[in-house]
């Protein structure tokens, strides 16, 4: 760690163990170092399962970024096999608060500001004890943020389950949400995760000095305007919103394995469909089989990151033994041989950013996690939207209907198995039809807008500079935790 520049600001960033949170936290640390010369200490909450190991490595920005893995948090006495993933994250981050306090107390230099991911709002009280500026990094869309902030109001207005409500859920100044697209936390109003979600919708703005948002005006101008101009939305927003995204991983072309790079280099430009459902995206055996048949029937080139079908739980941050099965159990017999000339199977994990940036990639079949969506957009690659959990249904809707860079199944994959014929149709639409080319052109337009937003002198850079300008005068009143 380079400690020679004592005048540099020191920011502590807190991430949950979820890879979807680790990625933007590290990207923010990298951005602070590259553009602002800020020293960052990333506190990574762990559970003893290293599911994020593929994305966690210290960014090489002049020694200004340090990663500190906190001791594993044990919540086994607080949960049972039916506990939802969001509740697991909420409880993990709550139990980690003493570890966060101890880690900061042990630092050789007190932090000048504190940033937590959305699930870590309980730790904002540690920053309050230090009397330092505190922010929440919201790692998803402005639309999801708007829903999260407004949900306590919906809770008072609407009776019964949201998914049973006819019509749409209105959010002031924003695109309404279809009941079937609501986030997982809103599916059951009697479940603990819903009550935690309501609490955090209030705390994210009440306890923070600002919300850092992983999006930009090129992608969500209407919603961002609602935060500023819509009176009903402003009434639930007690702190400013800073759209500083997109925060994405850098492309390191040397990271691709030689055999994978060799295969990609042999394919024509924009001819390959990249299929990957993220670190937590695991399909059933039956759906995996249908997907394989659909890819084969499409006769399109594909690169498929294949994960064994799920055993029970969707998230392996807390349940590492949730996948099983030999390849013959879930891929059609002879599939690998028949598709050898047009397809490549990659087991378990692939270097997503590097793959998306390769010129041979023309489409991305994705679970629509917001990190993956942003990485696809900044690579100019349109998508087949295949949402699985969390807020991914909202993301898929936004990508297809508002940004117009995605095609999606007629019925949500979480409700009904998507058949091989529909999969074939979506793949062909994206890869060889004029509608797919229009989406590709649109993705490239958004790519240009997003890159202009994050470049030095762009709006994202200016907003980050504004935040740091606000932090610097407050350094003198910061006190160390005892």
Describe this structure in words.
The chain is 40% helix and 13% strand. The chain folds into 2 domains: 264 residues, Rossmann fold (3-Layer(aba) Sandwich); 198 residues, Glycogen Phosphorylase B (Rossmann fold, 3-Layer(aba) Sandwich). The longest helix has 21 residues. It is built from 18 helices and 13 strands. The chain is globular. GO terms for molecular function: UDP-glycosyltransferase activity. InterPro entries: UDP_glucos_trans, UDP_glycos_trans_CS. Its EC number is 2.4.1.-.
Total count of helical runs of at least 4 residues: 18
**CA-based shape:** globular
> What structural class is derived from the secondary structure elements?
alpha/beta
Query: What is the end-to-end distance?
Result: 24 Å
How many strands, which pairing sense, and closed or not: the largest β-sheet? 7 strands, parallel
Q: What percent strand?
A: 5-15%
Instruction: Determine Rg (CA atoms, Å).
Output: 22 Å
CATH superfamily of the largest domain: Glycogen Phosphorylase B
Number of domains: 2
CATH architecture of the largest domain: 3-Layer(aba) Sandwich
Biggest sheet: strands side by side, in what order? Answer: 3-2-1-4-5-6-7
CATH class of the largest domain: Alpha Beta
Proportion of residues in helical segments: 40-55%
Low-pLDDT stretches are 1-6, 312-326
Mean of pLDDT: 90
